[in-house]
Design a protein that fits this description.
Layout (H helix, E strand, L loop, with lengths): L2 H64 L9 H13 L2 H19 L8 H7 L6 H18 L1
Helix pairs in contact: 1-2, 1-3, 1-5, 2-3, 3-5
Length: 149
């Protein structure tokens, strides 16, 4: 084979290999960025869901503290959020959300509490049914951050 052909084929092969390497690098970079964007979107969705659950549970718990359950529709949004948590949340977070729901249900069926007892209830830890849920959410989201790094 003529050395000119060999040089030309070597140059073409080198160009093809360089192009393939560039293509592979670009594809890997884009795939990595897409995964990072998906993780960020998933995290944002979970944060919003957890915040909404905390707000709604707090509102309903306050209502349960002072009133009886005269309309079960008051709990519909909270039940819907727990069901959504079943789709996206980790098991501990879901377990704590279900405990919050149970606690709220129990408070609705307890006698109404007088606001003068508020200080005693606060000291007993009875007034913060969301503490364990909030901690589970925080651990889940921090775990996601460190796993994504």
């Amino acid at each position: 084979m003529d050395t000119a052909y060999l040089s030309a084929l070597s140059a073409l092969a080198g160009s093809a290999i360089g192009a393939l390497a560039s293509l592979a690098t670009t594809w890997l970079n884009q795939a990595s960025q897409a995964r990072a964007a998906q993780r960020a979107q998933d995290r944002a969705r979970r944060e919003a869901l957890y915040c909404d659950f905390i707000r709604e549970a707090s509102r309903v718990f306050g209502d349960a503290f002072e009133h009886e359950l005269d309309d079960p529709a008051k709990l519909v949004n909270l039940y819907a959020m727990v069901s959504t948590l079943r789709l996206f949340g980790q098991s501990r977070t879901l377990h704590e959300a279900e405990r919050v729901m149970s606690r709220i249900g129990a408070v609705y069926f307890e006698p109404n509490k007088d606001l003068r007892l508020f200080a005693d209830i606060t000291r007993a830890g009875e007034l913060d049914p969301l503490c364990a849920f909030s901690q589970a959410c925080r651990e889940e989201l921090l775990g996601q951050r460190s796993a994504g790094s």
